[in-house]
Amino acid sequence: MYALYLGLRYMVSRPVNLLGIGGVTLGVWALIVIVSIFSGYITEVRAHVRMASADIVAFHLGPQTSYASAHSALGGDANVADCAPRLLWPGLIHPPNNELADPWIPGAAPPSGRFVTLTGIDPVAEARTSGFASWLLPGPAGDLDPAALAKAEDWILVSSKIAAKRGLSIGDRLVVTSGGGDALATHTFRVAGTFATKHTGFDNHTVFVSIGVLRTLLGYGALDFVNEIAIKLHHVEPEVVAQTGRRLTLALLAHPEFQFSRPYVLPQGEQERDFLSAVDHQRGLMKMVLFVIMVIAAFLVYATLSMMVTEKTHDIGVLAALGATRDGVLGVFSLCGLAIALVGTTLGVVSGCLTSIYLDDFNTFMARHFDVNLFPTEVYNLPRVPYALDPWWIGLVAGSSLVLCLLAAAIPALRAMRRDPLECLRTE
Amino acid sequence: MPPILSARNVEKGYRLGRNQVPVLRGVDLDVESGEMVALLGQSGAGKSTLLYLLGLLDRPSSGSIAFDGRAVHDLSNIERAELRHSEIGFVFQFYHLIPELTALQNVKLGRMMLTRPLEYMRQRKDIHAQATELLTRVGLSGRLGHRPNELSGGERQRVAIARALISKPRVILADEPTGNLDSKTAEDVLEILFQLNRDQGIAFLLVTHNEELAARCDRVVEMKDGRVVG
Ligand SMILES: Nc1ncnc2c1ncn2[C@@H]1O[C@H](COP(=O)(O)OP(=O)(O)O)[C@@H](O)[C@H]1O
Ligand SMILES: [Mg+2]
């Protein structure tokens, strides 16, 4: 009992222990908050990418792939629920009155415009296959209906971002230049509506048009060319998706049409993989840097306990005289270290979780009242400060903090145990 | 009835570098149950060393120590710690209270040495009452919540006595308990010790330089150069 009692008493009655407790709290807090923001960012971006894409997409189909033959190669797979044709082509959208002169006048000032990815789709098939229908924003005339779009001709859908930046509203005329090889062509579309996914990269460059109109613009006429196919799957567990992707890639490669191209079928998010793994890598570096704080905290615990053992010479002697064993003396100081570690870790975990959860409110508060933007969400294209509290990570942080502090406390505690109580009594 | 503590031909030496420095050179001493023995001797005579050996804090180089007729010098460390706790009390010249604990907590600490936390929690009201009673008996009822640095030397020594008493020892080893006190305070503290000896039959081995005080004890033992000389 005395070991527990004295250990706790020593902890609460010696202000210098606040140093150790504070260090441990800070280390645990930082490890939880910073890593939770990183994790939250990764999770959020991943979710946004997933939302803006079909389950899986066939890419690099080659410039002149027939949808019918690609579909026949893919449609047989048991996990494929539906497919939608896509034709992606770079194009320029022009501000009003700054269109490419037709015919082209040599020496004329080149038209200004903005590069976009013209994405030719079949609205009905697309709505069945990807989240397309949910991306469409209601206009003044109510919700947009993919089926109604399919019946119309010269519609174009721009993202709300592009619309805002270009000052486009529904019903506006929009001139687009595109073409293959050296043949450029312009076409005038009417803005039929706007859309928004949460994937900013996608929204920044995508406009949707009718795949038939785009084929005509590119000079393919009535041929059913596609260069991407969006695919909806029955089973979407990550491993199953990866397996299906490999299977579908092989199915395409086996098809005679693709013998000169390199098609592959991948979840669209794979394209963001490099970026996300860079963030992930930064998270790993951050963990290492923050771990150094933990080590410093453990060193503080070691230093304060060492000081205490030196000061406590008389106490060690008197404990022995009262009937303490050496294990008991070891216990007093280890339990004091453990108490410091437990209090510091608990405070760190609680404050870390609370900080993560309320960081967004705090950020908003600071921005509103003090004009200080701690975490500029616009820069990261996020609606709020992200966080993801991973119980496993919290457990790991708490556990390693305890182990580290106990190791740090063990050294002075062992030193106390080895002291000769008689010498402790004789020391003045 | 066997003596409560007895030393037979006890020798003790300390190693200093390569040399063995003899401190006790064959000491024979008995303290009978309920007896008050004064131990006189010049500084360096080996009085404290003998006290630590009798109090089972140290082991003799040779010879034997018996507690209540039972040889105890070669018991295990844990057995010696238990015996030290339950049968022997210590009082030191420099009080040796724990500075972080109040008077009351210092006394209670004497009851925590062998109890497990749960057991202690069950008995804590009892222990609290006992500690309060002991402090009252040594005249400190108004100082229960004071830390050692808020107490005078005499008060500190009285807390130390109460701490020694709480485990109900049969013998108390006091190493110059009044060596650091002015004569008036010393008298008060000694009065407490004599009273404990009279009323409760606790045996005392009292190291002192004060011959007048020694004369008031049941018996006087004098040490010189590691030997008992009378
Ligand atoms: N740990 C030790 N190492 C070496 N010599 C010691 C040690 N402890 C005590 N001594 C020596 O033993 C002798 C007796 O000491 P002590 O028992 O404290 O005497 P007293 O209490 O009678 O003044 C002294 O000369 C002291 O220097
Ligand atoms: Mg001495």
Walkthrough of the structure:
The complex is a heterodimer of chains A (428) and B (230). By secondary structure, chain A is an alpha+beta fold. Chain A folds into two domains: 2-48 and 275-426, no CATH class; 54-268, no CATH class. In chain A, 55% of the residues lie in helices and 17% in strands. Chain A has helices at residues 2-13, 17-51, 67-74, 123-129, 132-135, 146-151, 160-166, 200-205, 211-217, 238-254, 273-311, 313-322, 326-370, 391-418, 421-426, and strands spanning 56-59, 65-66, 80-93, 114-121, 136-137, 155-159, 173-180, 183-195, 206-210, 225-226, 228-233, 264-266. In chain A, helix 1 (2-13) packs parallel to helix 13 (326-370) and helix 2 (17-51) packs antiparallel against helix 14 (391-418). By secondary structure, chain B is of the alpha/beta class. Chain B has a single domain (5-228), classed as Rossmann fold (3-Layer(aba) Sandwich), CATH 3.40.50.300. Chain B contains seven helices and ten strands. In chain B, strand 4 and strand 5 form a beta hairpin. Chain B is globular, with a radius of gyration of 18 Å. Chains A and B meet through helix 1, helix 12 and helix 15 of A and helix 2 and helix 4 of B. Adenosine-5'-diphosphate binds next to strand 1, strand 2 and helix 1 of chain B.
